[in-house]
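Homework help board

Subject: predicted structure for assignment chain

Our instructor gave us this sequence and asked us to write out the predicted structure in token form, then describe one feature. I got the tokens but I'm not sure how to describe them. Can anyone check?
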Amino acid sequence: MAADKIEMENADSTLMEKGKKPPVSKVPNKFETLLQPCLAEIIGTMFFVFIGCVSVIENVPAAGRLQPALVHGLAVAVLVAVMDNISGSHFNPPFTIAIYLCGGMELMMVGPYLASQLIGGVLGAGMAKVMTPPDRYKNATGAAFDILKSDSQLSGAIFGEVAMTCLVTMVVLLVAVNGKTKTPLAPFLVGCTVIVNILAGGDVSGTCLNPARAFGPAVMTNYWHYHWVYWVGPIGGGVLAAILLRLILGDNKLRIVMKS
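My token output:
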């Protein structure tokens, strides 16, 4: 070790004699690699849930599903664009799980990301409660997903949450993780997918697609009717999307079968 140190010092001296600065070893910044991404997930999820809740609570009846669809989709596009290089802009537990399953992040960050997203969801729902009139917030159960009223709706709602979360997660994996299909248009494409999902399935399940989006309002209003659907459906859809990438759609590096 001592010999290596002397050799490095001699090399640095030679570079300085030639008017060149010795290379500086870059030590990873612990704040930027550990704490900052989690804080970005909290803040990003918080604003997404806040804007999403307000769009539902203050929805103009004549607008129908269009207003919440546009608000959720545009919010996703903006937040993904500005925070992608900080945390990867997950803001959704199924995204984090699927990205991990596809090798896009380390296991040690999965737990902190999931906790951060749930915290952000509660904070966002709380912000919406502060902003909106109490009667509207109460009548909309804080914009928790209350479209399910009976067991007869369960099968369609669960299938819808699985299928639509699979679609948006598949888009996320293709544009952000899969090397063959990565694109700078990722925020736009993910946002558009959110919009079309809400327009298509809003009356079936509420088109949650995100446990953190359902969890925050549920905590703030203590509304838990069929809440489990918005965990089972989205997480199942996220895992299914990861399987599709791993087995069929992923590039040679990502696929685990049919490698050349």
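Reply (TA_rk): Your tokens look well-formed. For the description, you could write something like this. The radius of gyration is 22 Å. That's the kind of observation they're looking for.
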